[in-house]
Amino acid sequence: MTSPYQRTRRLIAKQDALSYEGTDEAVRIGEELNEIESKISNVRAEISKIDSIIRMRVSDLKLEKAKLQTDLSSLQHDKMAKRTSVEMILSNFYTTSEVSKVLGMPSGPIVRYAIKGKLPALRVGERWYFPKRKVDILAAEREELL
């Protein structure tokens, strides 16, 4: 398959050769060349339109990227603030294994006491959290009894 450029070059060469003779073939080739040039011009105009659309879209995407980066930064900051808040709250609680060590008893009965309401606790998902002050008081009372 020949490219439009190669075809145009061949037609120009043929037109030059025939133009000396003044034939109808030279006129036909001239018209065909004009038609090709018109098509090339139309393609260039379409390419220019597509290029403008692409540039606008790239600009829109850059703005969207900047907005998303700002949102991400804000979310990361919020996450850190919430993590810090949760850590501060949890610093006032023992986990089940920590209560087990403080009270010197297995974790099974500790969880059962929490379920029955005999030991104050907070359940989050599958984990149990026990207020440190209450557990420390129980540990002190337990030591006094022993």
Pick out its properties.
146 residues; mainly alpha; Multidrug-efflux Transporter Regulator, Chain: A, Domain 2; 2 domains; three-stranded antiparallel β-sheet; rod-shaped
What does this molecule look like?
By secondary structure, the chain is mainly alpha-helical. It contains five helices and three strands; from the N terminus they run ααβααββα. The relative contact order is 0.06. The N and C termini lie far apart (101 Å). The model has no long low-confidence stretch (mean pLDDT 85). The chain has two domains: 85 residues; 54 residues, Multidrug-efflux Transporter Regulator, Chain: A, Domain 2 (Orthogonal Bundle). The radius of gyration is 42 Å and the shape is rod-shaped.
**Which secondary-structure class do the elements indicate?**
mainly alpha
User: Which band does the percent of strand residues land in?
Assistant: 5-15%
The percent range for helix content is over 70%
Give me the count of strands: 3
